[in-house]
Target: Phosphate ABC transporter ATP-binding protein
Amino acid sequence: MMNNLATKMTTTKAPTMTEAKITARNVQVFYGDKHALKDVDIDIRPRSVTAFIGPSGCGKSTFLRCINRMNDTIASCRVEGSILIDAENIYDTKVDPVQLRAKVGMVFQKPNPFPKSIYENVAYGPRIHGLARNKAELDEIVATALQKAGLWNEVKDRLDAAGTGLSGGQQQRLCIARAVAVSPEVILMDEPCSALDPIATAKVEELIHELRENFTIVIVTHSMQQAARVSQRTAMFHLGNLVEENDTDKMFTNPDDQRTQDYIMGRFG
Ligand SMILES: Nc1ncnc2c1ncn2[C@@H]1O[C@H](COP(=O)(O)OP(=O)(O)OP(=O)(O)O)[C@@H](O)[C@H]1O
Model:
């Protein structure tokens, strides 16, 4: 027994701080006088999917937007505390939010392609960030991003067609291709499937599964089933507090916090 335990202890490496891709400490968010997020501490692991769950208004999207400083665009919003990505404080005055958002891409609830061609939707980011030296390189980046987003075969013969002419599910994968095209390290997804039908949802979930090999993904979802299907870690928010963060399997079978238990059993929210 002791031997088994000793073997387990030497072979199972405990997660350490250095393994975190994103480290948040004492994060507080205010909208004017409203204290929307209170004292959030979390370590988010690289190349894995972390799901944020919790009842409406608990602060999931607010915290997600802290990770690429999208809250900077809301005048009444104030963020305190620190968020490190690869040990760099993204709230440091030296950090350029535009560069940060290339490193930390975002996919929104409603697919929002630009009113331009499929090609231009994907090429826009790499072009403004100077990632291609010529048209051939840009073509390559666009094709690769569309392949990674699982959309290439459906659109390769009509790259000049309008992005807005695609189905909702295809538009969302186009937005994922747009995020992937600038080679981000983190992809934030705010309820990316809420406007999609079950088939399109399944495709996006499959895609999340594949993208996890190369990207750190954080997803806000109202669907417990989706969190269970796509994530390895789950964080539960309630009334502006992060009440529990755990392995997804444990979270949905034997959570530590009564509020998580009540939420996943549908007792509130
Ligand atoms: N732009 C804003 N201005 C003022 N208050 C806001 C703003 N955005 C969010 N809030 C408030 O902050 C709190 C957290 O909102 P947030 O959208 O982060 O919650 P959520 O958990 O993502 O909710 P939902 O699941 O409904 O999207 C809520 O009380 C909300 O009303």
About this structure: The pocket of adenosine-5'-triphosphate is lined by residues 31, 34, 36, 54, 56-62, 74, 76 (CB under 6 Å). The radius of gyration is 19 Å. The first helix runs from residue 2 to 11. Residues 1-17 have pLDDT under 50 and may be disordered.
